[in-house]
Amino acid sequence: MSSANLGWLFYKDYYSAIQDWNDIKKSEKDLAKKVDNLIEVTLKPSQQYPLGNTHFQATTTYPGLILGSGNAHELPKMDGQAILGFDFDYTTGLPIIRGSSIKGVLRSAFKHWEYIAEISSLKTKDEVEKVENEIFVNNDIFFDAVIVSDGKILGDDYITPHGENLLKNPTPLRFIKVLPDVTFRFDFSLHDCNITEDEIFSKEAKSKLFQIILKDLGLGAKTNVGYGKFENFSPFKTQEEKERELQELEEKREKEKQQREEEEKRIKEQKAQKAKEGINTLLECKTLPEAFKLLKDSFGAKPKPTPEQKKVIQEFYNKQKNLSKKDIKTFKKYGVE
To answer: What is the dihedral of CA 283, 288, 294, 296, to 10 degrees?
Structure first.
């Protein structure tokens, strides 16, 4: 059933369990089995190319996510049925969060400008209202959020409403939900907003603001009892973007390696030139301290003179008289014999 269209199973095949509409109680077990089959479907969603210019992903938390609960789906007096409607994409059959729902939740947060100011760089009510107008009236577009994770997507849950008789055991009512740990991709077409002549509320700032609001408020039905919450907000990247980033990283590393090699070569050439210049003036030194300073400045702490340089140092060494053991040891570092 990996290729099953969940929307078709829920809104079309579901009702095929009813063999006699005049006595639907007879089909109660068959209908419950349809729901069982529905939530056991394991899918691998196709990688739809993201829309817009801004994308992030987030994962549902326990107890899950309820979408489209207002859609008609309940049949009368049947145990095991799914009593709430659900929102599926018509083409893919996968659960979908409508862009209009996302927009509605985000806009509801802007009714409280102090909250928006607290979680963003906006400082005043006027700034919040200006950004609100730019987002929800003038420029920005909200696309449907789609599932991008693999595996089992749907599960079931129950509500147990009490009737007038509180002493009577309630009848559990079954409904379906998106399971926890299912990842959705959120797509937007966002634009920078000019707050003042010198200050911009960027599309990146908008995306960050949206993520905080959605994390705080959630989406779908029954958010007041924990449904519809998200975690693990992170940027979404297509496979092409990941491959391009990897290629750019490799190119950056190669460029940095080349720069290091060029810098090492330049430093080596500088040292060689400095050593050459120092050696050329070594024979002009009048004192040993002056000569040792010149050698140290020319070759550094780990001297590696060339044969030609050793020849000059040897010549200077041979001219010296009454050298101490310490002086001889110093000359030995430069290859004299």
So the answer is: 130
Q: What is the pLDDT of residues 288-324, one digit of tens each?
A: 888 888 888 777 777 888 888 888 888 888 888 888 8
Tokens of 87: 């929102």
Q: Is the pTM of this model over 0.90?
A: no
Are the C-beta atoms of 153 and 178 separated by less than 8 Å? yes
**Dihedral pair phi/psi, residue 65, rounded to 5°:** -135, 130
Domain ranges of the chain: 6-236, 267-332
Half-sphere CA count of 177, side-chain side, radius 13 A: 25
Which has the closest alpha carbon to 144: 205, 203, 95, 210?
95
Place of tokens 């079309």: 12
- Over its C-alpha atoms, the chain yields an Rg (Å, rounded) of 37
Q: What is the pLDDT of residues 6-43, one digit of tens each?
A: 999 999 888 888 888 778 888 888 888 989 999 998 88
3-state secondary structure of 146: strand
Count helices and strands (H / E) in the chain. Answer: 10, 12
- Taken as a whole, the chain contains a residue count of 337
